[in-house]
Amino acid sequence: MTGPAVRVRTRKDLRAARRPRPPRCLGHLRVAPLWPMHGINLGTLLRTCDAVGACMAVPRLPWVPEALRRGNTLRRPACVHWVRDPLDWLAERRAAGDHVLGVELAEEAVRLADLPMARRPTVAVLGHERDGIPPEALDLLDAAVEIPMIGTGASLNVAVAGSLVLYKLAGFA
């Protein structure tokens, strides 16, 4: 007995099925690696942003523009918001009504599996890979999401953690 035939979709099929995306930022979903450690992670996150229709907010550090240029494998402009002061920017986003969600191990954090799709403008804040989100920024969060792990590491790579959360917030996972 054989099951139904599996039809592999070609790149052309996949492109035809995608919704056209507006060229401007809608601001609904943003990922904010505001304390980056490695440029390669910014490029990976930029690719995830394209996949889920999100924007990225990054600090104005001297090495960040080159990291984004190198990491933009799509070779077309990406939606990037430049942040001068991370704490001020987070406070502004919150005052504007955005849901500010930190990816952090914290009391009362929501497990990734239980994280609902973003229904209003949402910022997913990512901390430093070694130190997490700085204590002074934790007060600016509306909530935290935890990515459960059973391995010996204390955290995931920032690009991996950000990608998992973005897919969940976008309603793709």
From TrEMBL:
Keywords: Methyltransferase, Transferase. One of its GO terms (biological process) is RNA processing. One of its GO terms (molecular function) is RNA binding. PANTHER family: RRNA METHYLTRANSFERASE 3, RRNA METHYLTRANSFERASE 3, MITOCHONDRIAL. SUPFAM superfamilies: alpha/beta knot. Residues 40-167 form the tRNA/rRNA methyltransferase SpoU type domain. It comes from the Bacteria. This is RNA methyltransferase. Coiled coil: none annotated. It holds the Pfam family SpoU_methylase. The lineage of its organism: Bacteria, Bacillati, Actinomycetota, Actinomycetes, Streptosporangiales.
